[in-house]
C-alpha cells in the first residue's frame, strides 16, 4: 500500500532564505504522525506545499499515491486540512460556512449536518461565526476539514488558543478520528498532546529534519538510567564511573542520573550488587517528548 | 472544469448573497439613484408649477433642459437615466464590492481553505468575476424596476407620457450589457489590486485611485483641440471611450446627455467601435493574471 504522505528532498526557498531544506518524510496510512518544530522551522510551509498552496523549489511529494504538481486536485479530494488559525466567513453562520466549502468542492450538502454533529456544534450551527468562541472556531475548522470524508487529515495547531477543557475535547475528537482508520498529520506546539496522540513524529529545525521515528523509540534513545542507592552514593558513583559504557553520572535530588544506554539497566544492577551496593530503585530514565524536543532543537 | 466552475459560482453566490456589505452597497446605490431622479422630478414639478396648481413656477432650467429631464423621467428615457447612474454611482459601489468580495478571502484566510477544496485557481478567479457580474446584473435589474415605478409615479403626478414600445424593451439587454461592460476595467483593476495587496483596502484603494486618475485624464479632453494628433492620443484614454459608450446607452433610449452637460462635446468623442475596443483592451490589461500565494 502506498504511503499517505511521501516527500523526497522537498525544498522551498524564498530568495536566499531556505524555509524547507530537502525534507524526506514518509507517513504511513492510518497512523497519527506529529510534525514538530520551533516557530519558523518550516512546518506550515511544508503543509502549504503538500496542499498545493505553495510551489516547491525542489524535490517531490505525493499524497495518497498522487504525485503533487501532476493533478493535485485528485489527491486533495481525499484530504481535509486546517491550516494555522481557523479561517471562516464571520458574517455567515457556521452552517453556511460549511455549505460554501461543500459547494466549492462539489461535495453533497448533506455532509454539512453530519460533520457539525461530529464536532459537537449542532446547537450553535446557525449562529453567526463572528459570535463563536475560539474553541467553536477550531471545531468549525475541523468540521471543514472533515467535509470530504477525508482519508488524510492535516491539522495545524488544532488546539491553539483553547482552554484546558477545550483542548481535551479536541484531543478526544482527534483520537476518535484516528480510531476510524484515518491518517492524521498533526502539527502542534503542545508536545504533551502530541506525545499522547501520535505514534511517530518528525522534528524540524530551520527547515531541516533533525529527528524522526516512533515516539517510544525516540524517548528511549539515549534516555539514560535512573538509580537510587541505600546510604552514601559516593561509592556507587565511583564504581559506576569505572564502567566503559557510562558517559557521565550526576546526583540530583537523591537520585543518580546516569548517561548510559537504558538497555544496560539489568547489567548495572548486577554490577552494583556484586560490589555490595544496595540498590533501592533502578530503571530507565523516563523522558518526556518535551525534554527530547528541547534537547534536539538545542533550546536547552 | 465546467462542473468545477458551476460549483464555485454556487459557493461564491452564497457568500455574496449573504454578505451585509453587498446589501449595504445596493441600498446606498438605489437610494442615491432615487434621490437623483427625485430631484429631477422636483425640478420639473417646480418648473411646471405642479406643486402650486400652476400659480408659481421656478424656472431654473431652460425649456430644452426640462424637456430632457422629462425624457429621463418617462419611458423609455428612464432606462437610459438608470443605466447612466449605474455607470456613475454604481461604478464606485462596484469597486467597493469587488474589493470586499476578493480581498476579504485574503484578509480572513479563507482563500487557502477554498483552494484546498477547489484547487483550480483560474476557475476560482473566473467564478469570482462571473458571480460579481451576476450580482451587478441583479442590482441593475432592481434599479430598472425602481426606475419603472418612478416613471409611473411621474406619469401620474406630472402628467408625463407613459408609453413603452416593444423595441424599447428589446433594447434593454444591449443597454444593460453595455453598462456592465463599461464597469469591467474598474472591476478588473480592483480585483488585481486586491490580489496584489492581499486585502480589501488594497482593492478599494487601487480601484478608486484608478477611477480618479481616469476621470482626471478625461478632463484633459480639451487638449485634443490643440491638433488632431493630440486628439487621437487623448481618445486612446479610457475615459473618453467610456463616455462614448455611456452616451450611446443614453441615445439608445432617446436621451441627449449634452443638453444637461454642456462640456460634453459629442462630436469629439471616439467612435463606438474604437470605444468598445479600447474598453475591452483596458479590461484585459487590468485583469488579474493569478492569485499569488494565498
Tell me what the structure shows.
- Chain A is of the alpha/beta class.
- Chain A has eleven helices and 14 strands.
- A six-stranded mixed sheet of chain A has the order 6-7-8-3-9-10, sandwiched between helices. Chain A has a four-stranded antiparallel sheet with strand order 2-1-4-5. A four-stranded antiparallel sheet of chain A has the order 12-13-11-14, covered by helices on one side.
- In chain A, a hairpin with a 2-residue loop joins strand 9 and strand 10.
- Chain A is elongated, with a radius of gyration of 24 Å.
- The model of chain B has no long low-confidence stretch (mean pLDDT 88).
- Chain B has helices at residues 2-17, 20-48, 63-73, 77-86, 89-107, 110-117, 121-158, 166-197, 200-218, 228-234, 238-252, 272-286.
- Chain B has twelve helices and no strands.
- By secondary structure, chain B is mainly α.
- Chains A and B meet through helix 2 and helix 3 of A and helix 1 and helix 6 of B.
Mind sketching the topology for me?
The complex is a heterodimer of chains A (300) and B (294).
Chain A: E1 5-14, E2 17-27, E3 32-36, H1 43-50, E4 58-63, E5 66-67, H2 72-76, E6 79-82, H3 94-104, H4 111-118, H5 134-146, E7 152-156, H6 164-179, E8 183-187, H7 191-197, E9 200-205, E10 208-214, H8 215-220, E11 225-229, H9 233-241, E12 248-252, E13 255-259, H10 265-274, E14 279-284, H11 289-296
Parallel strand pairs in A: 3-8, 3-9, 6-7, 7-8
Antiparallel strand pairs in A: 1-2, 1-4, 4-5, 9-10, 11-13, 11-14, 12-13
Helix pairs in contact in A: 3-4, 4-5
Chain B: H1 2-17, H2 20-48, H3 63-73, H4 77-86, H5 89-107, H6 110-117, H7 121-158, H8 166-197, H9 200-218, H10 228-234, H11 238-252, H12 272-286
Helix pairs in contact in B: 1-7, 2-3, 2-5, 2-7, 3-4, 4-7, 4-8, 4-11, 5-8, 5-9, 8-9, 8-11, 8-12, 11-12
Amino acid at each position: 500500500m502506498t504511503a499517505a504522505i511521501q516527500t523526497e528532498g522537498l525544498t522551498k526557498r524564498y530568495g536566499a532564505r531556505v524555509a524547507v531544506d530537502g525534507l524526506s518524510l514518509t507517513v504511513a496510512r492510518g497512523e497519527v504522525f506529529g510534525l514538530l518544530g520551533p516557530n519558523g522551522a518550516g512546518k506550515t510551509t511544508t503543509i502549504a506545499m503538500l496542499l498545493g498552496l505553495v510551489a516547491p523549489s525542489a524535490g517531490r511529494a505525493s499524497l495518497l499515491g498522487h504525485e503533487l504538481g501532476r493533478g493535485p486536485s485528485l489527491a486533495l479530494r481525499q484530504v481535509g486540512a486546517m491550516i494555522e488559525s481557523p479561517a471562516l466567513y464571520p458574517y455567515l453562520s457556521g452552517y453556511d460556512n460549511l455549505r460554501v466549502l461543500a459547494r466549492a468542492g462539489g461535495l453533497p450538502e448533506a455532509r454539512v449536518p453530519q460533520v457539525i454533529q461530529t464536532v459537537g456544534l449542532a446547537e450553535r450551527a446557525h449562529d453567526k461565526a463572528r459570535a463563536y468562541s475560539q474553541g467553536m472556531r477550531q471545531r468549525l475548522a475541523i468540521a471543514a476539514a472533515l467535509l470530504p470524508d477525508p482519508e488524510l487529515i492535516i491539522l495545524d495547531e488544532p488546539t491553539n488558543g483553547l482552554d484546558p477543557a477545550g483542548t481535551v475535547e479536541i484531543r478526544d475528537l482527534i483520537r476518535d478520528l484516528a480510531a476510524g482508520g484515518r491518517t492524521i498529520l498533526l502539527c502542534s506546539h503542545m508536545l504533551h498532546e502530541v506525545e499522547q496522540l501520535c505514534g511517530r513524529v518528525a522534528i524540524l529545525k530551520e527547515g531541516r529534519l533533525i529527528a524522526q521515528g516512533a515516539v517510544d523509540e525516540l524517548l528511549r534513545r539515549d534516555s539514560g538510567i535512573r538509580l537510587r542507592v541505600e546510604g552514601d552514593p559516593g561509592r556507587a558513583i565511583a564504581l559506576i564511573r569505572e564502567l566503559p559504557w557510562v558517559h557521565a553520572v550526576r546526583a540530583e535530588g537523591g537520585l543518580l542520573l546516569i548517561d548510559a544506554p537504558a538497555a544496560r539497566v539489568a547489567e548495572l544492577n548486577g554490577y552494583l550488587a556484586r560490589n555490595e551496593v544496595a540498590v533501592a530503585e533502578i530503571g530507565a530514565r523516563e523522558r518526556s517528548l518535551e525534554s527530547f524536543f528541547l534537547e534536539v532543537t538545542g533550546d536547552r | 472544469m465546467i462542473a468545477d466552475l458551476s460549483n464555485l459560482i454556487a459557493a461564491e453566490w452564497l457568500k455574496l448573497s449573504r454578505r451585509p456589505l453587498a446589501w449595504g452597497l445596493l441600498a446606498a446605490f438605489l437610494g442615491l439613484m432615487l434621490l437623483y431622479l427625485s430631484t429631477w422630478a422636483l425640478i420639473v414639478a417646480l418648473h411646471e408649477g405642479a406643486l402650486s396648481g400652476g400659480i408659481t413656477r421656478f424656472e431654473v432650467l431652460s425649456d430644452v433642459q426640462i424637456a430632457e429631464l422629462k425624457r429621463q423621467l418617462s419611458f423609455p428615457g428612464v432606462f437610459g437615466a438608470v443605466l447612466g447612474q449605474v455607470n456613475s454611482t454604481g461604478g464606485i459601489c462596484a469597486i467597493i464590492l469587488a474589493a470586499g468580495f476578493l480581498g476579504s478571502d485574503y484578509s480572513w484566510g479563507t482563500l487557502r481553505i477554498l483552494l484546498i477544496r477547489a484547487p483550480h485557481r483560474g476557475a476560482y478567479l473566473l467564478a469570482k468575476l462571473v458571480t460579481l457580474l451576476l450580482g451587478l446584473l441583479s442590482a441593475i435589474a432592481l434599479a430598472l424596476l425602481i426606475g419603472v415605478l418612478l416613471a409611473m409615479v411621474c406619469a401620474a403626478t406630472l402628467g408625463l407620457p407613459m408609453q413603452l414600445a416593444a423595441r424599447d424593451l428589446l433594447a434593454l439587454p444591449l443597454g444593460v450589457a453595455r453598462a456592465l461592460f463599461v464597469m469591467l476595467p474598474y472591476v478588473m483593476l480592483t480585483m488585481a489590486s486586491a490580489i496584489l495587496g492581499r486585502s480589501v483596502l488594497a482593492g478599494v484603494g487601487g480601484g478608486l485611485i484608478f477611477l480618479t486618475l481616469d476621470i482626471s485624464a478625461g478632463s484633459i479632453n480639451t487638449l485634443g483641440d490643440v491638433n488632431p494628433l493630440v486628439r487621437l492620443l487623448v481618445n486612446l484614454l479610457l475615459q473618453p471611450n467610456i463616455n462614448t459608450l455611456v452616451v450611446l446607452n443614453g441615445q439608445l433610449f432617446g436621451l441627449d446627455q449634452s443638453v444637461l452637460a454642456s462640456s460634453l462635446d459629442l462630436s469629439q468623442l471616439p467612435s463606438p467601435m474604437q470605444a468598445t475596443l479600447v474598453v475591452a483592451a483596458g479590461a484585459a490589461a487590468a485583469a488579474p493574471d493569478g492569485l499569488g500565494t494565498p
